[in-house]
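Chain A, query sequence.
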Amino acid sequence: MKSMSRWLVSFMILLGLASGNLQAQTTVQIGAGTTTTTSFPIRSCYGYSYTQMLYSSAEIVAGGYSGSGTISKIRFYYATSFSPTTTSDNWTVYLGNTALTALTAGAANYTPTSAMTQCFSGIVTFPAVGNWMEITLSTPFNYSGGNLIVAIDENAASYTCSAGWRYTTTSPTTTVRQLYNDSYNPDPAALPGSYLGSSTSSALRPNIQLDIISASPCAGQPTPGNTVASTANACSGTSVGLSLQNVTSGSDVSYVWEHSDDDLNWTPFGTNSSTASFTMGATPKYFHCIVSCLYDPNPGTSNSVLVGVNSFLNCYCASNATNSADTKIDSVELGTLYVGTAATACETYTNNTAVPAPVIYFNTPQSMRVRNGSCSGSHYGAYVAVFIDINQSGTYEDPAERVASYNTTTALNSVPLFNFTIPTGGPSGLTGMRVIIKESSAITACGTYSYGETEDYLVDLQPEPVCIDPPTAGSAQSNITQFCNTTTVNLNLSLTGTSGGTGQTYQWQYSFDDVDYYDIVGATTAAWTENGVAISYYYRCNVTCGASTVPSSSVFVEAVPPPAAGTISGPASAYASQAASYSSGTSTGTLQWIARLQPSTTWLIVPGGTNDPQNIYFGSLGTWEVRLVASVAGCTNDSSNIVTTVVTLQNDNVCSAVPLNIGVNGPYSNVGATVEVGESQPLATGCNTNDGWCVAGISHSVWFTFTVPMGGSGRYGIGFQPGNWDSQIAIYSASACGDLLTGAAVLVAANDDSSGSPYNSYARAHCLTPGQTYYIQVDGYGTTTNSGFGLRIDDFGPADASFGGIGATVCENAGLVTLTPAVAGGTFSGTGVSGNSFDPALAAAGFHTITYTLGGLDICYSSNQTVEVVTPTYTYYADVDGDTYGNAGSSILSCEAAAPVGYSADATDCDDTNPSINPAATEICNSIDDDCDGLTDEGFDVDNDGYTSCGGDCNDNDNTVYPGAT
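Chain A, predicted structure.
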């Protein structure tokens, strides 16, 4: 009993010592660099980021710790500050044991959260600048002693672009990969997978500190749980990462990884580690791990996991452009396949594997069209290549699998028709096809590049069927359709649109006239190379199946004479912007005139210069060399002799001015123009005036004349078309050109800025005299020049100075008459005129002339009207009650023989307020003088006693009875 107690005491002492060892903590630092980055461990310049960083066991050992343990804290060095920190303080931290020795870019390559432990989620605290930012893990991590993955998911919205962290370069090994975006928040639980934001990989790994607590020896039977695979299915030749669901804590833990084809018979692999990697072959595999504690005889075995093998169709390497602008694939056409996108759609990669696959028969000629485009509309030279995985290996590495290529494109939609044949002998069925267009350099099937696009498709390779009787012969094609008859060429003849199949045979033929054909000896394949062709021939192919032979359509290959430029002639001198004629007379072929201004050695194409003879307009002064180049497709160009022409400005001087016509004239140039002594120039009256310029001064002035047509309007505007530019223009009247050098010329109009940028000038000149010649001065503002401006003269038509509102006669007492001009803004004048009114009373009786003179630039234009003011001779009386009899007490004088409304020539109405009372009315007994005869109720006093019955007589038959009788 004493012995047992002594053993227990000894065990407890050892346990106590072991417990003391268990609590021993080591701080490991990996990386000592002092350079800063805003990108890792979080991307502070973006709203959201998710970063995975790899630290190796060797680095942890070098930092002072080996073996397994518990990581309780992590730290990153906070080098530069930012505010507010709330834009970047919401972190979730994952740690994981891993067999990876390097990281691979791409969202599909991220270690899943199921293979890691979430150790922290919440708000982190940023220290003062120049200190380690510490995160205490709410769930300490059981570190197995191998390589370590540290993942940071930053979830706070918005960003502040200034936070910096110290890092150390681990080049060339990629140890950091990251997803980031302002709007899309990466979800670590949804990876591996796709991501709508941006991604990056780097060797700039942030410095880190790890607090690791050493572990005591493990005890009891381990429970490793499930075996965790990095992917459910993998491509042959790629690695699968393996880990355990449950980490066995403590030291002295051993691991034996095994794989199996049937989940029964197992084969060990890998190293003694809690994680492993396995390179997949062509068959699926089961995996598990046997975990043992050194002092326990009962190991634990993890539950097995099956990792499948992807179809080779899902295992092709990635390929895409990194810049979505410019060059792209507009459309692809192969057999029944036709896929296209909008010309303005910018694309870097398009997965078209869901498009129905076209059938491609072995040993059957194929024609394929790839249309190159650019979403910007601008062309850039690019390489094109088409790959087909003929051996169905999941790669495009076999050189024979590059079935078509072209370089480089010369314009949009400039890729020629591709022709190829898949040889027999390979596997049949669906396989991959990749089309790539790439700017600047040669194409490889995998990887990224700057500008262009990759498109992936599926095609169905099938054995060649038996040919059909009768066959479809299709059309003959040649890589060369025209060549120079002074050389020989090698022709590549092929068929397009032909049927195929076993048993089908071919015989190529040639002809001089496309009627009588002759067999080409040995030319019995679908494609044939005919060498040493020296003259013109037609070619076709007889296609035979069974008892039927069908000729293809023919292709004509023409031997043409070489071009001839001949000997050209032209003027020794010419004026700028005026036609100079050149000719050869013996040229043949397609022509192009070229010219260069000495001392330049670069020849310039003359726009539109494709004729013989040819007019050339020189825009710059100096000594020009002119040459004619003749070309014929398939032949070497021929160049003529060189003609030298000295070009000067005709209208540099006032007395050599160039005449202008109404409409558009030109083009002209003031490049190289000079200023003559005493040359006229407008004053600085303002930028938008019609009588001067912004600033006085001339530097490169040129001169023109304009003669006003007889019968012309005399009203014109002069400006620029084409060639708007920051210019100045002036119009002068002079009896002779020399007046423009002596100050005797008169400025008619001048303008500097008629509009905004480019401050184009436009002068209006009115009141010009028909038949007279005027001088026009053109200059650029300051010292600016223009080698191709046009001058436009606008005819505004005759001025309209007419007016109305008044007749030929007006009564002296008619009151004010309003005068109405056809064009407002002018001035009325004449006796009785004030402003826009005519007062006949003020003018008095008689004949008067009224004149209207236009204003502004049209002040020289006017019109007259003669008006007679008539004295009134008729008197009319007011007829208020409208009974045609007027009131003698209210009258007017008038010039009209007819009374105006409301008046009458009769003045006998005795009551003009009652239409029933007038000289024509019938007298009634009402005590009123109804007929205006001065009597009242006459004829109604029967007894003649002076009273009527309506006037108070109560008995009009007795003259003794009346009012007042006694």
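The longest strand covers residues 447-462. Residues 2-22 form the longest helix (21 residues).
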